[in-house]
Amino acid sequence: MSWLLHLTVERESRIPLALQIRSALRDLIESGTLWPGTRIPSSRQLALDLGVSRSVVVEAYEQLTAEGYLHTRHGSGTTVSLRARPAESTASTLVPPDPEPAPEAMWDLRTGTSNVLDFPRQEWVRCVTAVVSAAGPDELSYAPPSGVPLTRRVLAGYLGRVRGVRSSPENLMVTSGFAQGLALVCKVLVDRGHRTLGVEDPGHPAEREFVTSSGLRPVGIPVDADGLCVDDLEASGVRAVLVTPGNQFPTGVRLSQQRRERLIAWARAVDGYVLEDDFDSAFLHRTDRLPALQSLAPDHVIYAGSASKTLAPALRLGWLAAPSELMSSIEYVRAGWDIGCSGLEQLAFARFIDTGALDRHQRRLRTEFYRRRQLIRRQAADALPGTRVVGRNSGLQTYLELPPTIPEPALVRAARTRSVLVRGGTFYACTDTPRPPALVLSYATVNCAGLAQSLSALAVEYRRLATGNGPG
Q1: Cα(175)–Cα(33) distance, rounded to whole angstroms?
Q2: Where are the domains of the chain?
Q3: DSSP SS3 for 224
Q4: Using an 8 Å Cβ cutoff, are 303 and 165 in contact?
Q5: Which of 85, 107, 255, 443 could form a disulfide with 227 if both were Cys (CB 3.0 to 4.6 A apart)?
Q6: Which architecture characterizes domain 17-80 according to CATH?
Q7: What is the pTM of this model?
């Protein structure tokens, strides 16, 4: 394999060539430019690339191997040693460190995960192969920033069929996941004079931070058993709000029909917008599914979704369906940011939809997640007496309300000692409004057997706290 390596030597220098190569490689490793496990060229290939004798490179490699910087294995080539580490950490400061780093755990019931283990690899590979095999000059060129026209047509038809979304392909944009869609909408709102954005309380803490970084101030709007409290929204003074009406995150309640109508009336009255995050509609039980809120008012609702939960976050495929008068502004902002998502992946996704593979995959997952949620309901009733499951029988997580006598932070900490990672309800709170203690149990990545074991482990600490003995 003809591996490439950016490295030069100075023939006029008094420093021997072998020492130059050795020093340059050591610097690349210590600076973190070459990370442990990185393949580097063979001594023969690097000698040819640098125009030096192979013995010069062999000498440098042998010395670096002796010093622990390189690892050479017959038949496998030369790599940077796994023991080699950069002199200083180069971790990004953009992401704040976890204030309480999670230990190694057997069961991770925290939200924010996706069931990537069941990613339909073979069907996806078939779609990619078909697309690449048929790709001509147009398909291999740059796609429009808003997305490949064929993908937008297929996606518009799909969203209309399964969610009742009323949108033309021209008013649909393919984005790099939901995050980019949210960023685009926030930028347009700021450009139009908005300074605040209503968010659900409780809601997604990372989205609130994202909204803040976009230049808007998130304003918490309470959620109760019927979803977003529109009375509080009307009193807040905001003119745009981010909601999860189909299955509120994290409580799992559904926005009632009366409040859906009032929310639309509010948006029209203030000439504002509702950003609908339809993050897990694919996993709603058939008795819980209502059409997308966007179907009631395509002129005031921006519909957003992604393939992150249904397929895999690594695909970075999302979409926005926006009012036509707003989409032109979103397209203008997008054109200044990037030149669109991968056209080939968009075409593969369109084929995945057209062949029925996406529908089949979602049916399988919906059935499996329903079983997991039913198990949580049954076992919580037996092993965690006094708790109450909030919300409907759908989605990817369960909001479990605890008795007032159970200290939520203590239970979360005690769960870790039992190899269970879980978050309490206060993690999702936007304001200091008093609420009953709660746990939010995600079952996106833990199967039924794992859920049964993790809940049994959690129940041990729950009983200790309930009896006043404290964590074990």
Answers
A1: 31
A2: 17-80, 107-111+360-466, 119-355
A3: strand
A4: yes
A5: 255
A6: Orthogonal Bundle (1.10)
A7: 0.82
> Where are any strands of DSSP class E within 176-315?
196-201, 217-224, 227-228, 240-243, 273-277, 301-306
Q: What are the C-alpha distances in Å from 373 to residues 280, 290, 446?
A: 14, 20, 11
C-alpha span between 402 and 227 (Å, rounded): 20
Helical axes 343-354 vs 149-163, angle rounded to 10°: 40
How far apart (Å, rounded) are the C-alpha atoms in residues 52 and 109? 56
How many C-beta neighbours within 10 Å does residue 58 have? 16
CA distance 223 to 230: 9
Q: What single DSSP character describes residue 12?
A: T
Q: What are the DSSP calls for 341-393, one per residue?
A: S-HHHHHHHHHHHHTTHHHHHHHHHHHHHHHHHHHHHHHHHHHSTT-EEES-S
**E strand spans, 74-187:** 77-80, 107-108, 172-175
Per the CB < 8 A criterion, the answer to whether 44 and 7 are in contact is: no
CA torsion sign for 269, 273, 279, 282 is positive
Query: Listing from the earlier edge strand, what are the strands of the sheet with 388-390?
Result: 388-390, 397-401, 438-442, 423-424
> Rounded to whole angstroms, how far apart are CA atoms 325 and 61?
62
Render each residue's pLDDT in the chain as its tens digit; 472 residues: 456 788 888 988 888 899 999 999 988 888 888 888 899 999 999 999 999 999 999 999 988 888 888 988 877 789 998 776 654 443 333 333 444 544 567 899 999 888 899 999 999 999 999 999 999 999 999 889 999 999 999 999 999 999 999 999 999 999 999 999 999 999 999 999 999 999 999 999 999 999 999 999 999 999 999 999 999 999 999 999 999 999 999 999 999 999 999 999 999 999 999 999 998 888 887 777 789 999 999 999 999 999 999 999 999 999 999 999 999 999 999 988 888 889 999 999 999 999 999 999 999 999 999 999 999 999 999 999 999 999 988 889 999 999 999 999 999 999 999 999 999 999 999 988 889 999 999 999 999 999 999 999 999 999 999 987 654 4
CATH topology of domain 107-111+360-466: Aspartate Aminotransferase, domain 1 (3.90.1150)
User: Is residue 182 within 8 Å of 175, Cβ to Cβ?
Assistant: no
CB atoms within 10 A of CB 102: 10
For the structural domain made of 119-355, what CATH number should be given? 3.40.640.10
The one-letter amino acid code at 430 reads C
* Tokens standing for residue 450: 């794992």
Q: CA separation (Å) from 65 to 27, 126, 309, 429?
A: 14, 43, 44, 53
Instruction: Pull the structure tokens for residue 370.
Output: 């329903």
